[in-house]
Design brief:
The complex is a heterodimer of chains A (about 220) and B (about 250).
Chain A: H1 10-47, H2 51-66, H3 69-84, H4 90-115, H5 119-127, H6 132-162, H7 174-185, H8 188-220
Helix pairs in contact in A: 1-2, 1-4, 1-7, 2-4, 3-4, 4-6, 5-6, 6-8, 7-8
Chain B: H1 31-63, H2 70-84, H3 88-102, H4 111-137, H5 140-148, H6 153-168, H7 170-183, H8 195-206, H9 209-237
Helix pairs in contact in B: 1-4, 1-7, 1-8, 2-4, 3-4, 4-6, 4-7, 5-6, 7-9, 8-9
The chains are: A mainly alpha (about 220), B mainly alpha (about 250).
Chain lengths: ~220, ~250
């Protein structure tokens, strides 16, 4: 079996790959932003000390974390059209799924980050006469975010890899782009290899940057 | 939506008739028979992959901590980076479509074996990372104590370092074992008849996706709980009095 990469040219990249790459990146960015937002809310619910806030958040987070992502994708693809009352494309369904799914994972990272802040900081804020909201937004969360930034970014890289699972509902992501190109040009083997290479380059360089950032933050502290 | 029809599981998979007793006889199977077969596939894919992951992950993790062997350390690091930075689904496609095309002797391998290798090696990189962290979490003095007793390198790993390191990493190993069950769902992409594949196919076939997805989801949760309990039991039985294991951080799915 001989490998033949001669079919790879700008037209193929532009026609098949870029569209998928763009969707994978957009999905990662939106899911990270949404996941961090809702994840912070979930973490605050779990740390509120009020049972009626803590219990539903705990059930949600643990539920999401014990189901395979592929099943979550299938569930949302099935249920979201029912809830909003009209059919929804695979791409939109994927965005909603990933925000909801990542919120559970990010909330656990947030919770660990918030708990890593010494209690004295909370007391200091309270002694200054700050309200709970002021204390959180001005004292606790800024420090917590910095502590957990490396873990957060690592999770984002994992999220980027996981976007390939939208394969289950047929959304057009980076992997799908390579697969379609491979089918159209009769060169699936080469396309799978290139897909693996591109994913590796992206994820490896990102994780290398996270490592450097980690070292930088560690020195400041 | 809310009026569920659980009798769907008692239906014969070919004729669609509801069978009495819910289980089929002989070669006629119901969807209930089928879901247990699918669960069996999920369990066997996961457990076989877990064995591969533990063995390979331990070897790679250990060689990354060896003193005075920079090339072995580099080999281990490359291994981990390779398997960690390519999505699992892409790796499964590589093993299923690419490897048999490039290496003719692999052509006759059953797809079960290829998926197990893919999932096992993917997880081995993560376990290698945990084993390395576990070994490095031990005080340097443990290694020196082993050396001072005249142990060779394999000996002090076997009798001094690894017994403690494995105890430290039981919590992250627990979540990794639960992850492998979740990750086995990706095998649907190469038509392994496991639970997710069952959910997709039977959900469509019976037009009762909610019931089917619910049943599959519950089976996944049960699997995760059972693994969790088994690991907790192992952790309890292997505990050394007076030694407080500090878990290393675990992330990811």
């Amino acid at each position: 079996m001989n490998l033949d990469f001669s079919i790879v040219n700008w037209n193929l990249i532009q026609g098949f790959i870029l569209k998928g790459l763009w969707f994978s990146i957009i999905l990662t960015v939106i899911a990270t932003a949404g996941g961090v937002f809702f994840g912070t809310l979930l973490a605050l619910m779990r740390l509120s000390g009020k049972k009626w806030l803590d219990t539903p958040a705990a059930i949600y987070v643990n539920g999401m974390r014990s189901i395979p992502l592929v099943m979550v994708i299938l569930w949302f693809f099935l249920l979201v059209p029912f809830i909003i009352g009209r059919p929804l494309g695979a791409e939109y369904s994927a965005v909603i799924t990933f925000i909801a799914f990542e919120a559970a994972y990010f909330s656990e990272i947030m919770r660990a980050g918030i708990q890593s802040i010494p209690r004295g900081q909370v007391f200091a804020g309270q002694a200054m006469g700050m309200t709970y909201k002021q204390n959180m937004t001005l004292v606790i969360l800024p420090q917590a975010f910095r502590n957990m930034l490396p873990v957060l970014l690592t999770q984002t890289i994992i999220l980027f890899q996981d976007t390939s699972l939208v394969y289950a509902i047929g959304a057009y992501d980076l992997l799908k782009g390579f697969e379609t190109a491979g089918k159209n040009f009769g060169r699936p083997i080469e396309m799978y290899l290139l897909a693996a290479l591109l994913y590796f380059i992206i994820c490896f360089s990102l994780s290398y940057m996270v490592k450097r950032l980690h070292r930088k933050i560690a020195i400041i502290r | 939506m809310l009026n569920m029809d659980w009798a769907v599981f008692c239906k014969d998979t070919i004729t669609g008739d509801v069978m009495s007793g819910c289980l089929g006889q002989g070669r006629d199977i119901t969807y209930l028979n089928w879901i247990f077969t699918a669960w069996g596939w999920t369990v066997s894919v996961s457990l076989t992959a877990l064995v591969i992951a533990l063995v390979v992950g331990s070897v790679i993790g250990v060689i990354r901590t060896l003193p005075d062997s920079p090339w072995l350390v580099r080999l281990g690091n490359t291994w981990v980076e390779m398997f960690r930075n390519i999505p699992l689904l892409v790796q499964i496609f590589l093993w299923y479509h690419v490897v048999p095309a490039l290496i003719p002797p692999m052509r006759d391998m059953p797809s079960f074996a290829l998926v197990v290798i893919a999932l096992g090696l993917f997880t081995s990189a993560r376990i290698a990372e945990q084993v390395r962290a576990g070994v490095q979490a031990l005080p340097k003095g443990q290694r020196y104590a082993g050396m001072a007793l005249g142990f060779t390198t394999p000996q002090y790993y076997r009798y001094v370092i690894l017994p403690m390191a494995y105890r430290i990493i039981i919590p992250p190993l627990t979540s990794e074992s639960m992850n492998i069950f979740k990750n086995s769902s990706v095998a649907f992409a190469v038509s392994i008849p496991e639970l997710t594949q069952y959910a997709m196919q039977v959900g469509e076939e019976t037009s009762r996706p909610v019931e089917v997805y619910l049943a599959v989801t519950v089976l996944y949760i049960i699997s995760a709980l059972v693994i969790n309990r088994i690991m907790a039991f192992i952790e309890k039985r292997s505990r050394v009095p007076g030694f407080v294991a500090s878990g290393t951080g675990a992330g990811g799915h």
